[in-house]
């Protein structure tokens, strides 16, 4: 069970991009299911009949998606500016390692260097537009070869 939970927590599943999670759950449930289907919204629906008829039924329901980030633009220096998908506390973003796009390109969430921060900026939580993703690109052109907007 621990290994299953670890695997599910490491699969990429940002809202509207839950394919990896759905595919994994489908494969895990298939040997035990009487029926499996994916509805129009992408939800996986698995049914398993009991061995003997009973008046009670059990339903397990869970989200497959998670909060994430969406690349909105690329700076001249090759940094990725982003918006959130779902609600994320900006205070926890700095220094987080993330994976970008279908190729799961590694990146880190960055912010203006501390020695460049004014006294007023030091007292406030940075705005989302102050953050960036660093993928190690040295220019906009280099970043565009690795990442798409959206």
Jot down its keywords.
single chain; 150 residues; alpha+beta; three-stranded antiparallel sheet; two-stranded antiparallel sheet; 4 helices; 7 strands; 20% helix; 23% strand
Strand content: 15-25%
Coarse structural class:
alpha+beta
> What is the molecular shape?
elongated
Percent range for helical residues?
10-25%
Please summarize the sheet with the most strands. Answer: 3 strands, antiparallel
Q: Catalogue the unreliable spans.
A: none
How far apart, in Å, are the first and last alpha carbons? 35 Å
Could you spell the SSE succession in H and E letters? HHEEEEEEHEH
How many E-type strands? 7
**Radius of gyration, in angstroms, nearest whole number:** 21 Å
Query: Whole-number average pLDDT?
Result: 92
Supply the number of helical segments: 4
Strand order of the largest sheet: 5-6-7
Description:
20% of the residues lie in helices and 23% in strands. The protein is of the alpha+beta class. A hairpin with a 5-residue loop joins strand 3 and strand 4. 12% of the residues are buried. The model has no long low-confidence stretch (mean pLDDT 92).
Short description:
By secondary structure, the protein is an alpha+beta fold. Helix content is 20%, strand content 23%.
Give the SSE map:
Layout: H1 2-10, H2 19-29, E1 35-38, E2 44-47, E3 68-74, E4 80-85, E5 97-100, E6 105-110, H3 119-123, E7 132-134, H4 140-144
Antiparallel strand pairs: 1-2, 3-4, 5-6, 6-7
């Amino acid at each position: 069970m621990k290994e299953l939970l670890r695997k599910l927590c490491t699969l990429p599943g940002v809202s509207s991009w839950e394919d990896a999670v759905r595919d994994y759950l489908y494969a895990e449930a298939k040997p035990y299911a009487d029926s499996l289907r994916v509805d129009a919204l992408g939800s996986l629906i698995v049914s398993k009949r009991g061995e003997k008829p009973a008046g009670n039924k059990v339903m397990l329901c869970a989200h497959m998606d998670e909060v994430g980030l969406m690349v909105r633009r690329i700076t001249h220096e090759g940094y990725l500016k982003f918006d959130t998908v779902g609600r994320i506390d900006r205070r926890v973003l700095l220094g987080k390692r993330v994976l970008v796009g279908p190729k799961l390109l590694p990146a880190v969430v960055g912010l203006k260097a501390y020695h460049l921060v004014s006294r007023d900026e030091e007292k406030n939580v940075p705005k989302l537009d102050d953050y960036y993703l660093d993928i190690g690109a040295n220019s906009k052109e280099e970043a565009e070869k690795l990442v798409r907007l959206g």
